[in-house]
Amino acid sequence: MSTPGETGTEDWPLWEVFIRANRGLSHVHVGSLHAPDSDMAVRHARDLSPRRNEGVSIWVVPADAVTTSDPDLKGEFFESPAGKNYRHAIYYTRAEGVKHL
What percentage of the chain carries pLDDT values higher than 70? Predict the structure, then answer.
């Protein structure tokens, strides 16, 4: 996402844009844009979103506030540590009388 026709926008901070399509769904990253502040970033995101009028919520986050994992360390980062199988729900059974699980 970029704001066409504006000069000097590259000097503005970069914002990451997340949109939630419907209540109960997760926000999804849809792109990045430059804006002078968070209010303007939300406005630009609303105006530039390819799914305009379909979302229920927009989040904008300063790009320099986002911390990511290293894709090269995917294996060791996301693999379950040995001996900690209890972290997986498949090893548990539902207790009798508990209706919300």
Answer: 73
Q: In this structure, are residues 32 and 17 in contact, taking their beta carbons and an 8 Å threshold?
A: yes
| SS3 state of residue 29 | strand
Q: How many CB atoms lie within 10 A of CB 45?
A: 24
Cβ pair 19, 13 in contact under 8 A: no
Residue bearing the bigger pLDDT, 40 or 52: 40
Quick check: helix, strand or coil at residue 30?
A: strand
What domains appear along the chain, each with residue ranges and CATH number?
Answer: 9-91 (3.10.20.520)
Angstrom distances, CA of residue 46 to CA of 12, 51, 99: 18, 9, 41
100: helix, strand or coil: coil
Judge contact between 22 and 56, C-beta under 8 A.
Answer: yes
Mean pLDDT on 41-48: 91
Question: Which tokens hold the place of 41?
Answer: 């970033």
